[in-house]
Write a structure and sequence with these properties.
alpha/beta, 6-stranded parallel beta sheet, 6 strands, about 35% helix, about 20% strand
């Protein structure tokens, strides 16, 4: 609501926007909490209300999972929504739907109030057909039905019905948040 009010009020100087990868992924601990919070608060005062953040997936264990929640808790406290991406996440295995890493991440974080969405793939139309992406989308929805699926789709003009990328057109049920850009 605050972002909508800021946009509607032309006299408001702050405009909300998002940025990509504002904090290095790692094994975050309580010792990192203050620095994470300070970074996110600074970004929010600059008008950032959404970030795309990479979360480490290794080494597996409770410390890593606690670190994910530390970051999301600080994002919530700062008023920043998170589109999360786990790295490495076995992207090449996704067509076979071996989503073990993603399932573990979303089981821990998927209901967190700071989670806006999960970023599934980066420029997926280079590697997957529209039908494969729709299968991936359905698999993600089985894991976290209420969490939007985001893809960094890329240069949509280069993919949509381009002969270089057959069967890779932008189609329904690929993503809920489709992040596009054009060179």
């Amino acid at each position: 609501e605050a972002a909508a009010d800021a946009i509607a009020d032309s006299t408001t100087a702050v405009r909300f926007y998002g940025i990509v990868y504002p904090y290095p992924p790692g094994l975050w601990t309580e010792a990192d909490r203050a620095a994470i919070g300070e970074q996110l608060e600074t970004l929010h005062t600059m008008g950032v209300d959404t970030i795309l953040q990479v979360f480490a997936s290794r080494p597996a264990g409770p410390e890593l999972e606690n670190g994910w929640l530390i970051f999301l808790d600080e994002a919530e406290r700062a008023g920043v929504q998170v589109i999360a991406r786990v790295y490495p996440a076995d992207e090449r295995a996704w067509y076979g739907f071996r989503l073990k890493t993603i399932r573990r991440f979303l089981n821990v974080t998927g209901q967190h109030p700071a989670m806006l969405a999960y970023q599934g793939l980066h420029e997926p139309l280079e590697d997957y057909t529209s039908r494969q992406l729709q299968r991936f989308y359905r698999a993600m929805k089985r894991i976290a039905p209420d969490l939007p699926v985001a893809h960094m789709v890329g240069d949509i003009v280069a993919f949509d019905r381009n002969l270089r990328f057959p069967n890779r057109e932008f189609a329904p049920d690929i993503c809920d948040i489709c992040i596009v850009f054009h060179y």
